[in-house]
Structures
1.
Amino acid sequence: MADAELHDQIELLEGRIEDLAETIERCRKLILVSKVAMAAGAILLAAVTLGAFGSSPLALILAITGILGGVVVLGSNTTTAEAARADLTAAEVRRGELIGMIELHVVGDRATRH
């Protein structure tokens, strides 16, 4: 394989690696938000149960929605982040293999002066 082709493939892999890193970061943020939503829903549910809001059906619906929505978002983004991490690792390994295939050339044989 020609060095130019290797460079092109490495460049494509580096773009893919950047995209995967962004996906992982986005998932991390959404996982944090989902945990906050679950905690807020649990606190609201406890408050409704203790009678802090009387018999407000809206508060109960919001509490349940926060808990269930948080669980769904957490599960979905955890799975996505795990898949992206696996893809990221594979892309980094492949990039390393391609870099190892490039023929390196000696720039000069002169002794270095310090």
Note: The mean pLDDT is 90.
2.
Amino acid sequence: MVAHSTIPSASQACSLVQTIQWLKDPIGYMEKAAERYGDIFVGTISLKMDELVFVNHPEAVQQMLTRDRQEFSAPREVNKMLSMLFGDMSVLMLEGDRHQKRRQLLMPPFHGERMKTYGELIIELTQKVFDAIPQDSHFFAHSTMQNISLQVVIETVFGLYEEERCQKLKQLLTTWLESCHSLWQWDLSPPSSWGKSIGLRQQIDELLYAEISARRVRPDPKCTDILSLLMSATDETGNGLSDGELRDELLTLLFAGHETTATAMAWSLYWTHYLPQVREKLLQELSDLGSNASPVEIAKLPYLTAVCQESLRIYPVMMLTLARKVEKPVELMGYHLEPGTVLAGCIYLIHQREDIYPDPKQFKPERFLKKQFSPYEFIPFGGGSRRCIGDALAQFEMKLVMATILSNYELTLANAAPEKPKRRGITLAPATGVKMVMKRRQINPHKSS
């Protein structure tokens, strides 16, 4: 194969026009470019970054995310923004051996036996939130799922149950997360937006450092929340995380573990009610499981798993992988890439490939029952050494929340029109928030608790 030097451009429009197109209609922007140029193309999504190379071929994305870091690294421009949000010591900011060692410290709380501990809590919090919705009233699934996921994060990450501290942290986090979303329109947002976000983060910092300090003084080995586990974790040399490192990781977990999971659950709730046959099949699977199933047994249900996976496929919450920058000349997809070139794997376009997912615009959970997709064909949580640490917990939460709602409440969509995706910060969220009506009655003898 003869390597080319010039990657096709997504648009002949100027950078400002392309940036506006991306901000207003990212799906249209990506689909038009992919239809015309295929597996790799150059686009502009921000005036404050260089041109970005979109890559939507699974094998190419795998190369990009798994090659030696001397060939690909994290671009400084993206790191700078993430640093302002999460701090310099978050796992997202680290490279090389430091990154690998930090991941090893962070992984245990999100896998294995710890998951069982979180299962009953997730079910209990879901029932608590839905029991508070008045019968025959309207509610928005997206904001309701945000409420659930935020409470799950606070109790699983922090182990906070005391009402006053919980409410204060929830209020600050909700406001801060909303301000963060506006910052991802960074070309168009006023400087005051950054000041507001930083001010909110400083208030959150005070709460986090106070909690860390209190636990340093009075450690409790019986605590199973993620903060306690991280505070007790040590590397091979016996060193643990500093207060600053703990704070940065907590902020990252709060941001990544709240909004993304809530959006994915809102999409799942939409599809199971927009397509009655999907909902009925799920109810039958839950009923067949019986009334005394454990959270782990519920999470293993094949059709429930397939529904959640298809929700993550058709409208992945994150449209792009974390960006990578070329450090020395490399070849990818038949093109020579020079140092300084910035690339990102396009999760949305990979999930819409007709050669991998026939009828990609159709919601078909059965496709996940018939085929095992590779980690770079189905990539909602990124890939390589940068794959989301909390992916197992996120999927566990999705399945338990969906099972709990479907087993105990009858809901209907308030609007017959299809729900469309809309860019919300760096995510794809339901444009109208999925407006629903609570009928509140148990429609199935199966109880998910």
Note: The chain has one domain: 15-438.
